[in-house]
Amino acid sequence: EPEVTQTPSHQVTQMGQEVILRCVPISNHLYFYWYRQILGQKVEFLVSFYNNEISEKSEIFDDQFSVERPDGSNFTLKIRSTKLEDSAMYFCASLMGGALRNYGYTFGSGTRLTVV
Amino acid sequence: DQQVKQNSPSLSVQEGRISILNCDYTNSMFDYFLWYKKYPAEGPTFLISISSIKDKNEDGRFTVFLNKSAKHLSLHIVPSQPGDSAVYFCAASARSNYQLIWGAGTKLIIKP
């Protein structure tokens, strides 16, 4: 069964450092997402990406965040200067067009980001 | 602004019995509702969905009921099995986009 792959599974970084979280979505999917879940809190939408551009972003997704799909397969989330409150599980998800109806998103296993 | 609410943080059910997980929403623009299951250290896994044009959708042991007038949906699991122990998230989407708005989740514990 096709999977969404996220690397690394755990990233520890110092406050103020840049991090790049990587995702390989399912190959024929068209929509890509980043969500995060701070420990004990709700899953929060960060950004959606379609047709090589951001289609929607939340208030959380400020200027410190950026996304790229540099080579048609990887989908990356960059945090330019990490803060302590960026510590969370970050989930990548992909969706094949109208498949929300039947299949929902396919999520990766997540990257646990710990900012110290 | 909690557009999707799951008011029970946890639920404990005897194995073999019915588990009922509830979800309320406030945004009348939502027209698609989904349930996801999440184990620790894993990403959410899609379980079942329902369109606003329906009031029930069934898939094996899982049934989702939608009451649009009450803006309420529920997930029924019958019979409950130990492997069902997980956190269950309700999520909603509006036709205008594919972004999901998530509830806070309910931790389901199936007791042997």
Summarize it:
The complex is a heterodimer of chains A (116) and B (112). Helices cover 0% and strands 49% of the residues of chain A.
Which outline of chain A best applies?
globular
Report the strand count of chain A: 11
Annotation, overall tally of beta strands of chain B: 11
Give the rounded overall mean pLDDT of chain A: 92
Strand content of chain B: over 45%
Query: Which two protein chains have the largest interface (Cβ within 8 Å of the partner's Cβ), and how many residues from each?
Result: A-B, 27 and 23 residues
**N-C termini distance of chain B:** 38 Å
Question: What is the H-and-E element order of chain A?
Answer: EEEEEEEEEEE
Give the overall silhouette of chain B. Answer: globular
| Number of contiguous helices of chain A | 0
Q: Please summarize the sheet with the most strands of chain A.
A: 7 strands, mixed
What's the order of the H and E elements of chain B?
EEEEEEEEEEE
Parts with pLDDT < 50 across at least 5 consecutive residues of chain A: none
Structural class of chain A: mainly beta
Oligomer class: heterodimer
* Residue share in helix of chain B: under 10%
Radius of gyration of chain A: 13 Å
**Residue-averaged pLDDT of chain B, rounded?**
93
Helix percentage of chain A: under 10%
